[in-house]
Amino acid sequence: MPEPSTTAGRRSLPPWLKVKLGKAGRSQATRELLGRHGVHTVCQSARCPNIGECFGSGTATFLLLGNTCTRACGFCAVGHGRPQSLDAGEAERIAAAAADLGLDFVVLTSVTRDDLPDGGAAAFAATVRALRQRLPGAQVEVLTPDFRGDRGGLSVVLEAGPDVFNHNVETVRRLQPVVRPQAGYGRSLAVLAAAGELAPGLPVKSGLMVGLGETDDEVREAMADLRSSGVSRLTIGQYLRPSARQLPVDRYVPPAQFEEYRRWGLELGFAYIASGPFVRSSYHAALAARVAGEGAPAP
């Protein structure tokens, strides 16, 4: 399907895709606070369409391990190339920023660092522990890369005691080679299953994008695969092309179809499913934790 027409460089969008801008004053204050602490967020680096709403609410999803990824996924706006050396003070700065924001639910994600022996697992663990020191009452969700399928790296993260483990399969099986050429559908399912095996009772979460060329039957198949792999929380959102360098949008899924995905998810037995055009992996993550009501507390 061709891209919609553009006006002054901006693509026209269907009427249901209206971005929430949030409170401008608080959004700017959030940007300034994050800048003072010198931390990265996926909201900024990935050009998330929800940045106005989230920053305007005084929340953000922290991006670990720098701002340069060793992979080049077709959908992602985060820069890729040769990363800089690890920042020893990153964990403490993220914890301090989260404390200054007054967060009671913190989401940590990262670029993929295939150049590191542990894939960056130790950085996740250090940041979870730093948050426990600064914000002992806060819950922590980790959204990790696949660590190249290494259970050792996964164990390091889980031993730090996050409250939710998240890893995105991103798209359906058929489209993986185009959307995530350096990853793999089977590997991601194995990571999710392993998380449930290594940390029984810990909620396991994943996410899908639609609008990349998949069929609805393929979406349903992926949902069933995720549920069979032990995933209990699922997010499904519309892929929106961050820039001309990323894959084009194949289709804009209407709200009624997102509601159908949600119904399918409930039928499959997910404890929580968020399905909508602007849903993203960490979007309203605290709400997901409250609604799902499953899982063991962190040690």
Structure report:
By secondary structure, this protein is α/β, with parallel strands linked by helices. The protein has a single domain (20-292), classed as Aldolase class I (TIM Barrel, Alpha-Beta Barrel). It has 11 helices and 10 strands. The chain has helices spanning 24-37, 42-45, 51-56, 90-101, 121-134, 151-159, 176-179, 185-198, 216-228, 255-268, 285-292; strands at 6-7, 10-11, 40-41, 61-64, 105-110, 139-143, 164-166, 204-210, 233-238, 272-276. Helix 5 links the parallel strand 5 (105-110) and strand 6. Helix 1 packs antiparallel against helix 4 (90-101), helix 6 (151-159) packs across helix 8 and helix 9 (216-228) runs parallel beside helix 10 (255-268). It is globular and about 45 Å long.
Q: Which helices and strands, and how do they pair?
A:
Blueprint: E1 6-7, E2 10-11, H1 24-37, E3 40-41, H2 42-45, H3 51-56, E4 61-64, H4 90-101, E5 105-110, H5 121-134, E6 139-143, H6 151-159, E7 164-166, H7 176-179, H8 185-198, E8 204-210, H9 216-228, E9 233-238, H10 255-268, E10 272-276, H11 285-292
Parallel strand pairs: 4-5, 5-6, 6-7, 7-8, 8-9, 9-10
Antiparallel strand pairs: 1-2, 3-4
Helix pairs in contact: 1-4, 4-5, 5-6, 6-8, 9-10
